[in-house]
């Protein structure tokens, strides 16, 4: 008798107000899932700055250059050029800094890709043309005044003088409204003498591109919101078939 009671209760629910309520809730659940997955961020192009960095140096390093950006399909492209000359001790480098306005709502995932093929060069009166000096890079992003952090997969170490640097990674924008961003691109090396210069050229054809991620594959949190909505819609279809 007990299985029969369960069947009667299910039949009563499917034919009563419970099913009507479920059908009303289902579209709301699906809409919430769509909203959670549809976050896109627009970063406004700005002119940036170029400065020298020197950690553990006894003196100062000197940098010169320019930095800029422009809009591309579904995102923004950063580029610039600079050089640094200074200390023979410590870790010396060039920093490209961009701070601008933004719009959109997070959470959102942004794709980051870069290609500086052949644009990293060292020069020194004491270095031969075949000398190779390793350099490191870090690409950092922050939103709404937050401290910039290295994006996922956006750091590494390469050799210089013709060795290229390219790759891809991702950066996550936080939940809520996004009104500003900060992008920091650090390039560092350990100089061997005071006359060693690191030069970086990021032309507009070889850039750091940041674009919104494709929305074709829902994230796990989105799927959790979609499951109840799809289940309730299936319940409604089952009710009509039962009838």
SSE string: HHEEEEEEEEEEEEH
Q: Give the class from helix and strand content and strand pairing.
A: alpha+beta
Low-confidence stretches: 33-37
Average pLDDT confidence is 76
- The number of distinct structural domains comes to 1
E-strand count: 12
Q: Roughly how many Å apart are the termini?
A: 23 Å
Keyword list:
alpha+beta, 12 strands, 47% strand, twelve-stranded antiparallel beta sheet, Jelly Rolls, 243 residues
Please provide a brief summary of the model.
The chain is 24% helix and 47% strand.
Can you put this structure into words, describing what you see?
This protein is of the alpha+beta class. It has a single domain, classed as Jelly Rolls (Sandwich), CATH 2.60.120. 24% of the residues lie in helices and 47% in strands. The chain has three helices and twelve strands, in the order ααββββββββββββα. The chain has helices spanning 2-15, 17-37, 220-242; strands spanning 41-43, 49-55, 62-72, 75-85, 91-115, 120-123, 135-143, 149-158, 166-177, 180-189, 197-202, 208-212. Strands 1, 2, 3, 4, 5, 6, 7, 8, 9, 10, 11 and 12 form a twelve-stranded antiparallel β-sheet that branches. A hairpin with a 2-residue loop joins strand 3 and strand 4 (75-85). Helix 2 (17-37) packs antiparallel against helix 3. The longest helix is centred in the last third of the chain and has 23 residues, at 220-242. The protein is elongated, with a radius of gyration of 27 Å. The two termini are 23 Å apart. The model is unreliable at 33-37 (pLDDT under 50).
